[in-house]
Design a protein that fits this description.
The structure is a single chain. With 85 residues, this protein is α/β, with parallel strands linked by helices. The protein has 4 helices and 3 strands; from the N terminus they run βααβαβα. A 3-stranded parallel β-sheet has the order 1-2-3, with helices on one face. Helix 3 links the parallel strand 2 (29-33) and strand 3. The radius of gyration is 12 Å and the shape is globular.
Length: 85
Amino acid sequence: MLIIVHPERNQSFLRNAIKLQAFIDLGCYLQVTASSLTEKVAHGVRVMAEKFLVHGHVSTIASDCHNVNGRAPHLLEGLKIIVRG
């Protein structure tokens, strides 16, 4: 199993989503960062993360938490957004 982590933050994929589609077509899973679904990120990142969810490409939501001060997990916020749909 191959997992592409936070593709919504990858500048190459943001510029050209077709590049990522090739990995999806090969069966790769996508892991989106919870904070990418919140207002804490750039609009383009949020739009791409939402698009992945709508199309059913997301297999995992991650915290990407490195510490609670500089990069908090935001898992609950991300989950609330997913549940609201």
